[in-house]
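Limitations

Structures in this collection are predictions, not experimental determinations, and the ligand pose is part of the prediction. Treat each record accordingly. The example that follows, with PMT as the small molecule, is included so readers can see exactly what is and is not provided: the inputs are given verbatim, and the output is the predicted complex.
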Amino acid sequence: MLENRRILLIVAGGIAAVKVPDLIRRLRERGASVRCILTKGGSQFVTPLTLAALSGDKCYQDLFSLTDEAEMGHIRLSREADIILVAPATADIMAKMVMGQADDLATTALLATDKPVMIAPSMNVMMWTHPATQSNLQILKTREVRVVGPSAGDLACGEVGNGRMAEVPEIIAALTRFFQKSAGQGPLTGFRALVTSGPTHEPIDPVRYIANRSSGKQGHAVATALAELGASVTLIAGPTNEPDPDGVKIIHVETAKQMMKACTESLPAEIVICAAAVADWNVESAGGQKIKKESGKTPALKLAENPDILATLAQPGPSRPSLVIGFAAETENLIENAQLKRAKKNCDWIVANDVSPGSGAFGGDNNTVHLVTADGVESWPTLQKRAVAERLAERISAFVERNL
Ligand code: PMT
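Predicted complex:
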């Protein structure tokens, strides 16, 4: 997908610029051509000579260089590319992009371009979470600027949190997805995926229900990531505030039984991912009338077990999907319990996540997960749920390529 693609790489002034030489190498290995613009700040971290040598092209730095303007004006530079990638994208360059500021070659090229733009943000966690940066991010997204990363972890400044530039393979995957999508195809084109997401609500009476803290962020992100790789996705969603993802068929349900029914009716599918936090029980004694509060009397709720959707879909048989993936939400003995759950529910892979208090997995934006398969356990760093979904979608694509 990257063969013969022309990438204009803008390297801004952040420590993550040290990853750029490797990024250029990997892009060129895949047949892409890379032309670099290095900002003044970027040149504090990586030299123009390194970028020129690795890209096999001149490294552009100066807006007012008469030679460059004669050879390759900033307008041509910004137009003779299939995509502009800003990596690392600092808080400063993001702010300038929002303002339409054009005070150096990089920002001028970004303003003058008619080509898609992707940014790989990288900065200190406080800078990243600052309302100014977050508001700039939203504005850039509304202008269709693609965003890859950042991820959470140790930052060069010594602090810990969100702000690490996406790793080189993630940036390459994001570019690949972009070109696949623009070509109207992806590695999962022709495959059907069924995804469950969000909580279920189990009525106690017409106004009360039993629920859990699942927001649907993780399951919805999985559905989006699979659709971006070309899969035809049906998302069965419990009650959430998440917007319906683009390019996905969505079925809204409330209870576990409704989710079960929607899932079985949506088969056949080659791929199933159960990310929903399905209530294990429903209220058998739920009635049609609101339970009245009577002083001195506490109503007893009689619970009945809900159907296990994952275990049902993973049952052996001719119509079993080829790849059935569950999530395991655990508060202790994470891996061991996830392995037991994988065996008990007969699913192929299980994504184990620690949901103990303080983990933020339920409802938060990040997830720390371990992919448990028959081959072993792969532990991933703390990632935004979108990045977890993209990694999982890549692993699914690799499985599909090898086995289907
Ligand atoms: O929605 P978010 O706020 O983004 O949070 C994401 C998440 C924490 C909910 C998600 O990452 C997650 O862990 N989902 C699974 C939650 C869960 O119910 O885990 P479990 O260990 O109880 O269930 C194991 C598996 O069986 C899950 O795949 C679940 O979907 C499935 N299951 C469980 C019960 C049931 N009756 N039917 C099922 O299909």
